[in-house]
Amino acid sequence: MSDKAKIQDDNAPAGGWGSVRSVASILTQEEVVLLGSEILLKQNKPGGFMCVSCSWAKPAKPLPFEFCENGAKATAWEITGKTVGPEFFASHSLAELRTWSDHRLEEQGRLTHPMRYDAATDRYVAVSWDEAFRDIGAELNGLDPRAVVMYTSGRASLETSYMYQLFGRMYGTNNFPDSSNMCHESTSVALPEVIGGAVGTVLLEDFDKADCIFFFGQNTTTNSPRMLHPLQHAAQRGVPIITFNPLRERGLERFTNPQNPIQMVLTGGTRISTQYHQLRVGGDGAALLGLCKAVIEADDAAVAENSPRVLDVAFIAQHTSGFEEFASYCRQAAWSDIERASGLDRSDLLATARVYASAHAVIANYGMGITQHRHGVETAKMIVNLLLLRGNIGKPGAGISPVRGHSNVQGQRTVGISEKTKLVPLDQLAELYGFEPPRWDGLSTVDACDAIIKGEAKGFVGLGGNFLRAVPERSLMEPAWSKLRLSVQIATKLNRTHLIPGETTYLLPCLGRIDIDRQASGAQAVSMEDSTTCIHGSRGQREPVAESLLSEPAIVAGIAKATLAPSPRVDWDAWVGDYALVRDAIERTYPDQFKDFNQRLFQSGGFARPLAARERKWKTSTGKANFTVPKAALNPPEQGNGVFQLMTLRADGQFNTTIYNEDDRFRGVSGGRMVVFMNAQDMAELGVGEGDMVRLSTVADDGVARALGGLQAVTFDIPRYSIAAYYPECNGLIPLWHYAEGSKVPAAKSVPVRIDREAAV
Ligand SMILES: Nc1nc2c(c(=O)[nH]1)N[C@H]1C(S)=C(S)[C@@H](COP(=O)(O)OP(=O)(O)OC[C@H]3O[C@@H](n4cnc5c(=O)[nH]c(N)nc54)[C@H](O)[C@@H]3O)O[C@H]1N2
Ligand SMILES: Nc1nc2c(c(=O)[nH]1)N[C@H]1C(S)=C(S)[C@@H](COP(=O)(O)OP(=O)(O)OC[C@H]3O[C@@H](n4cnc5c(=O)[nH]c(N)nc54)[C@H](O)[C@@H]3O)O[C@H]1N2
Ligand SMILES: [Mo]
After folding, report:
1. Which of 50, 58, 465, 684 could form a disulfide bond with 538, CB atoms 3.0-4.6 angstroms apart?
2. Which residues contact 678 (CB under 8 A, 6 or more apart)?
3. Is 466 in the pocket of ligand 2 (CB under 6 A)?
4. Tens of pLDDT along 575-625?
5. What confidence tens digit (pLDDT) does each residue in 139-157 have?
6. Domains of the chain
């Protein structure tokens, strides 16, 4: 057993010296100190490269250092000089590598050669690219396209993603699940119904104009740290910032700007959250109901007293539908139910509602604390209800802001990576490329897992990602995976998914976004869409670590050419030779969204895709923005009687399944990730002392045993019956069927578990 994690409770604000030190240490660890610091200056700058970490917006006037601690870590991790080539695989069997940690696997460095799994020796052996493509093409042609899953993790560029979905559809499948299916899919289902578009409505400039900002279940400091800059400015202007989060996240409390050393020394940080509501896990629907009720009843009182209205009556009349039904539902809801279901006091909700009602322009941000719940879709719609009450969509300084994760996850959906046919312009593709695309809806991530477990899916192509670590139900997924006829993984670094072979298995190494990508017409640029619908060009900055690497577009094209009959309408080689031609094709497919794509590629701050909701045009079934009556706002996940609700979340030392180090600075944990954060009173009742080892077992009566031991208990400021531990370590505890209604996003933020003390060793 490894040493225990160290827990400290210094009250250091987020950012600041700690983060500067941490950046230096990661550059040293990855052996890229000088090169790295030079490259970091090009991060998120027009003409430079776009960060491979989060998808937060990039300003038109960047700071001298337009990167954060985590962005620097992600860069260092990608441009590392360490490599993993054929010699590495010759000396390690997969059985051996399966005993390594996630950290140790990726830490070996960048993959350099195309490899094929050899079952006789249980090792990967080098193959040529041609051989790999030929065999993959033959394998794909031997499979029913409906039984092939083409997964995408959210990093691949718009150009690669467009080519990949076109290839898949010409091959005959719509099975395009992507990481979004585990992430903001609840948003992509909720928002089209209520505001007529699948993405957020705010632009970066809105943060300068807002006079009230909400955060629901999003941990900015760890997961989108550059967003702290506009937040800090807002806080300095006196804008109330109101946070709803069960955990007391230190990073959401105070922030010190490391790019401003004077302030850092003198003041010790700006206060970020002016109100911090520690609600119960999954209590957001009820909390939002309380806020809406308070605003509506304040308006009722204003009408009675003949004083100025609280609601934006003109907006509601002109732009919305369903208000009366929603308002009467809110009026009828009992405060006692709202208090029980949210875990918050009425007086606190009333105080917040007063702040909301006196603000003219409100932004509501949210993240996985909303989307990864059984009722995540409904709760996202509740956030919209709150905003609609005062016309806070489609005006400067206001809007809904789902904070996306991966740096291009939103953009991939924009260019056709989707299992849902209604989101893809199939007619357009059919006409442009002269083929008949499949018209059936494909498999989402959860559906794909189900099909793999049942043995119905036979082939899997992964464009990035670490599918087996990211999905739920590990104990069923890993054994099922080895029954796949074909597994093809396109990746930059070695991970667990690569270590569970199917019958035929390829590991194909690709260039990363920071690598210089030279093709026939010269060094190429690629593009991505940030969380605010702005599209940015990105140019690689450093020489690739190996000549044997191919770019993602070249790999997709290689597989496509080996699989499909030649088509007079798609010249894969020409596209690989010049990505500007792919951008022209994207523009032809989406003329409104990508007008003058190539000309605008390097516009400072990116170019914003047009968005109807931003103009108060509502592409919904009613032609209006829709208020919706929730069904489950008063039924949060059950807790008590020995049942705890587990949230699985991220530490500051990780990017999803990539573990940079075992630290979580902002939560005071270092040197270990096998911890569980608990309420002190719960610990006392269970007889669990600080640092004791516990075991979590999922409460579900479906006959599957799901348990995880060896977790060190840590006292934390968290409500009773709510506990937290890290993803991906805990993914085996999540049943596959435990997902958000309507979106099938695994409900990773409310896993019902029991806690047992483990005997001391
Ligand atoms: N450094 C770093 N950056 C990242 C990532 C990373 O792993 N590391 N991942 C990227 C990706 S893909 C994504 S999607 C984003 C994720 O970024 P976030 O959306 O911030 O996701 P999490 O860290 O999983 O959890 C968010 C927060 O939700 C809170 N929470 C949990 N349950 C509830 C609840 O019921 N109600 C409320 N109100 N809050 C709740 C948790 O306490 C936590 O603070 O970050 C992206 N950026
Ligand atoms: N329990 C629990 N489970 C979760 C979550 C949670 O909060 N809790 N969060 C979910 C969320 S929000 C997400 S987005 C998913 C993430 O799921 P994924 O997107 O599948 O996982 P990542 O960890 O981001 O993938 C990391 C791997 O991507 C590869 N990679 C990195 N860069 C590149 C590149 O440029 N090109 C290619 N081809 N490959 C590259 C590397 O090999 C690396 O090992 O996990 C989900 N799972
Ligand atoms: Mo994500």
Report:
1. 50
2. 688, 713, 714, 715, 716, 718, 723, 755
3. yes
4. 999 999 999 999 999 999 999 999 999 999 999 999 999 999 999 999 999
5. 999 999 999 999 999 999 9
6. 6-79 (no CATH), 84-183+411-611 (3.40.50.740), 185-403 (3.40.228.10), 644-757 (2.40.40.20)
